[in-house]
Amino acid sequence: MQEFIAINEQRAEFYWWMSSLFATELTQQDLDNYHGGDMDNYYSVLAMTDELKTPIAELRDALAKLKVREDAQLELAADFCGLFLSTPKSGALPYASMYIGETGLLNDKPAVEMGQWMDKYGIAQRKDFNEPFDHLAVELDFMGNLVILANKETDEEKQEAMMQEQQRFLETMMLPWIEQFQQTVYQFDKFGFYKAAANLLVSFIKLDRAFLKGE
Fold first, then answer.
1. Phi, psi of 49 (to 5 degrees)
2. Phi/psi zone of residue 33: left (φ > 0), alpha (ψ -120 to 50 degrees), beta?
3. How far is CA 183 from CA 69, 94, 139, 177, in A?
4. CATH number at residue 158
5. 51 CB-near residues (< 8 Å, 6+ apart)
6. Could you give the CA distance from residue 192 to residue 82 in angstroms, rounded to a whole number?
7. What total of structural domains would you count in the chain?
8. What pTM was estimated for this model as a whole?
9. What's the pLDDT at 104?
10. Which Pfam families match (predicted)?
11. In terms of residue numbers, what domain contains 140?
């Protein structure tokens, strides 16, 4: 039981980290933390998993380049705005509706479905994050919370049911569009930090889905 709880806490931690990374521009304090010893240890732990070894190496390489990038925080903030706050012609908008919606507009079917998931489990969006429900950061934050809900169950059958819900969420709400998003980030991110982050995220989601399926 303790191992089950610990694994889920680690999974949730990753989803919440990625949620914060894609939610808003990183501050100087964020960057200092990313370069710090605690995060470096965290990268090392993630890299112990074969499927994450290369994505972590790419992220570390991007962080090393940030250390010598002039005005790194300001330039990375500009990268964020250019990628995620622009238009589909020049950036990688982080909304599921832009990739698998029916109209090509925001708040399409994926946002409606995400709202239904949030209502079902009583998981609200952060009040200070005023974005459509199908924003990548919202979906990642929700997944982290969904993972932790399994830890609150004491009955094994209910725990298993929550794990199956996590798998269903990944398969219906994230996997149908996350690789298209990743490819678009690849296309437009010239510096490479968010490219590396997107690659790590997709690798982890695929790994997590396999874990939930018992593969």
1. -90, 125
2. alpha
3. 24, 12, 19, 10
4. 1.10.3480.10
5. 203, 206, 207
6. 13
7. 1
8. 0.97
9. 84
10. Nitrate_red_del
11. 1-213
